[in-house]
């Protein structure tokens, strides 16, 4: 599926005005193309921004293992020494990490 220069300019312009998945879906319907095709074209043009998942509180999700790694770094020990700590409740790990890494 090739896009004309005009189509490409139109897609980029519309997406830059409102960079959302809804815009992609609208463009797909207007141009009778699959949404993945529109996303691919926007990506090749360097304008597509993928939506990143956030938690209910609006934070970027962090795994328990990543928090344990932060704790190990703050304690200046190998992560292996803290084996099993990732099984603790996430709020507990966050509190420990915050305490060890005050920012």
Walkthrough of the structure:
The chain is mainly alpha-helical and 103 residues long. It folds into 2 domains: 5-44; 64-100, no CATH class. The protein is 55% helix and 0% strand. It has 5 helices and no strands. The chain has helices at residues 5-17, 21-31, 35-44, 64-75, 90-100. The termini are far apart. The mean pLDDT is 90.
Q: What are the main properties of this structure?
A:
5 helices, 103 residues, mainly alpha
Brief overview, please?
With 103 residues, this protein is an all-alpha fold. The protein has helices spanning 5-17, 21-31, 35-44, 64-75, 90-100.
Tally of helical runs:
5
- Fraction of residues in β-strands: under 5%
Annotation, overall tally of beta strands:
0
Radius of gyration: 22 Å
Topology:
Layout: H1 5-17, H2 21-31, H3 35-44, H4 64-75, H5 90-100
